[in-house]
Write a structure and sequence with these properties.
Structural class of chain A: mainly alpha
Largest sheet of chain A: 3 strands, antiparallel
Strand order of the largest sheet of chain A: 2-3-4
Largest interface: A-B, 131 and 131 residues
Order of helices and strands of chain A: EEEEHHHHHHHHHHHHHHHHE
Strand content of chain A: under 5%
Oligomer: homodimer
Distance between the termini of chain A: 39 Å
Amino acid sequence: MAKEIVPGLAGIPVAHSGVSFIDGDQGILEYRGIPIQTLLEEKQCNYLEVAYLLFNGVFPAADELQHWNTLIGRYRILDAETVAVLAALPKGGHPMHALTAAIATLGMLYAAKDQGEPSGRYRTMARLLGQLPSLVAAFHRLRNNLEVLPPKDELDHAGNFLWMLRGKLPTELERKVLDTVFIVHADHTLNASTFAARVTASTLSDLYLAIASAVAALNGPLHGGATQATLLQLRSIGSKAQVGAWVDAILAKKEKIMGLGHRVYKVKDPRAPILERLAEKLFAEQGAHPLYEVAMELERVAKAKLGYKGIYPNVDFFSGLVYDKLGIPVDLFIPMFAIGRIAGWLAHLREQLEDNHLYRPEQIYTGSHNQSYVPIDKRGKQAKTVWSNL
Amino acid sequence: MAKEIVPGLAGIPVAHSGVSFIDGDQGILEYRGIPIQTLLEEKQCNYLEVAYLLFNGVFPAADELQHWNTLIGRYRILDAETVAVLAALPKGGHPMHALTAAIATLGMLYAAKDQGEPSGRYRTMARLLGQLPSLVAAFHRLRNNLEVLPPKDELDHAGNFLWMLRGKLPTELERKVLDTVFIVHADHTLNASTFAARVTASTLSDLYLAIASAVAALNGPLHGGATQATLLQLRSIGSKAQVGAWVDAILAKKEKIMGLGHRVYKVKDPRAPILERLAEKLFAEQGAHPLYEVAMELERVAKAKLGYKGIYPNVDFFSGLVYDKLGIPVDLFIPMFAIGRIAGWLAHLREQLEDNHLYRPEQIYTGSHNQSYVPIDKRGKQAKTVWSNL
C-alpha cells in the first residue's frame, strides 16, 4: 500500500472547530477568538461564563448569565443513586477511575431520558458541567469516611468545589485562584482526550459515554499526568540548593524536566505567567509554599541552561503548587484538570454532533494471508510465553 | 490552511496492525491471516483459542491452551468489591453504561498493581478477557434481584456466560452457537471502538480505561447498535406476509433496512452464512424462532429488489435471532458484542503500546482572532437560546 502512517496523526486535521486556537510559535491561546490573557484580566469573567462562551461562541448577557449560573447550580446537586455508587467504589482506587464510573452512572440515570427530548443534548451538557466538581469532591469525602457536603447557592463553581471538598469556606483569593486554574484548563484544541471524546461520540454514543472516554484518555501520564509529576519532581529535588546538581544529573541522563516545555508552545506558555502571579498572591496570603523557591530556582537554572532551546515553564509548573497550597491531594490533580477541561470537551462534542461523521480510519496491514488452520497436535510450543508465569 | 479534512478519516491509515484483515470487495475476513471460515470449520477452535491467536499471532500448543483456559477461568471469578459496585448501580440503566462503570471499578482495584509488575500488561489482558462475561451476567442477575452465580470450571467461555446469565446449563449446541457468535465478533480491523481504545491508550492511560473507552464507543447506534435495531425491525414487520409492503414503504421513504449491507463489505459478509447455518440448527433443536421466516423473506425480497447494489445480509441479521432464541434480552445485545470484541481490542492495544505515539491530531480553525472582551452591560441578548427552557 502506498499510503503512509503519520505517527499520532501529528499535523493531520480531523475536525473543523471554532472553540479554541493555539499558535505555539507566538505563544497565543484564544477561546472563541479571545486571547486567554484578555479573559483573565477582566475581573468579571469566571469559569462558568467562560464555559458558556466556549459552548455558544458568545458571552451571555446579564440575565442569561444569571439563568446559566442558576441552571448549573441546580445540576451541582448529586442524586442519592449516584452517591450510593460513589460510596460503593473501592476506597483505594484512583479518583479518575472513580470519575469514569460515576459519569457512566449518570448515563444510567439520564442518558435515555435526555435523548428522548429535543433539548436533551443541552440538558446533558449542563448536567455534566455542573456535576463534575461534586462527583470528585464526594468521592474524596467518602473515601475518607467523611460526609458528602451539598453545594451552597452563594458560592460559584470553584468556590463550591473547595467547600464540598474541604468542608470549610474558601477565602476570596482561594476561590479566584482556583477559578483561574479552571479557566486556563478549559480548552486546548484537539488534544488526545478531546479527540477520544469525539471518536466515541461519532458512533452516536451518548455524551455521558463520550465524556467517560475523555476522562479515560486524560488519565494518561502523557496527557493529564504532568501536573502531578511536576509537583512530585519538586518534592524529590527537595531544596533550592539541590537544584543545580539535580538539573545537571537529569541532563546527563537525557531525561525530561517536568513542567518545562510543551509539545505545542515553542515560547512561554501564555497561561503560565497568569498562574505564577496568582500563586505568588496566594502564598502572600496563606504563607509561602516550601517548594516555591525550588520551582523558581529550577526555572532560573533551566532558563540559563536550556532557554535557547525554547523550554519555558508551562501551566503544570505552577498549578501543582497552587493545588497543594489549596489542600488538594496529589491524586486529585488530574480530576482538577477534568473539571476545567469538561467545558472544552462538551463544546467540541456539540460541534461533532452538529456535523457528525463516524471515525472509521484504516490500518496498514502487516500480517500474512490465507493461512491454514494448524491442528492442535501439530503446533510448535514456545519455550516461554508472556503468559507462562501468570 | 491548505490541508483538508477527510470526514471520519475514511481511507486514512492511523496504525500498523497484524491482528485482522478485511477485503470488502471479495468478502474476506482473516484473523492473523486465517480466513474466518477456516477458523470456524474446525471443530476444535473455540473463542478463547481465537483470543490467544489474536493476542499472540500464533495458536497455543496443547499444554499452552490448557494453561490459557485455566488462567482465563481464574479471572472469570468476580471480586466481592466489584459485585458490590454492580449491586449499587441503578437497576434501570443500560448494561453498556454498567459495563463501563464496572471496568473502571476493576481499574480501581488493579490498575496500579498491574502497572507495578513486569507482566502486568498481560495479566490485565487476561483479567479483562475473563471478567467481561461475568460482569455482564452479574449486572443482569442483580437488576432482576437474582443471586450472582459463580462460573463453573467444566464450562468454556460461552457456556459459562449462558450459565451465569440464565442459571441453567446450556445444551452443547447453545454453547457452540454462542461461541461462534463471539468468534465472528472478535475483531474487525480499525473500527471506531478499537480506534477509541487506541487513542485513549496512546496517552499511556491504563488498559482498563482504554477498554472503558472502547465500550463507550461501541454503544453508539452507528457501531454496536445494529443487532438490536435489526431484531426490533423484524419485530415491527411482524409477519412474512408484511415483508413486501414493508420493504416498498422503506424504499419509498429512502430509509435504511437494518441487517443488510455493510460499510466495508460489497459482497456477502463472510460471517453471515456461518451464523445462518448455526441459527437453523438451533431452531431445529429448540423450536423455530417466530421471526426467522420474516428474516428469510426479508433477505429474499431485498435480494430481488436490491441485490445488484451489493446489499446482502450482514452478521447482525442472524445474531439478533440467535440471541433472542438463547434468552438473551435485547439490551444485552451490545454487551454481547463487547464480550466478543474485547479479544480484538486487547490485541490492538498490545500493538499500540509496543509502538506508541500519542494521538494529537490537528483541527481546521473556523473562528476569529484577537477579539476583545465584551463587558457584561454591552452584550447583546439573544431572543431565545437552547438553554432558555432548561
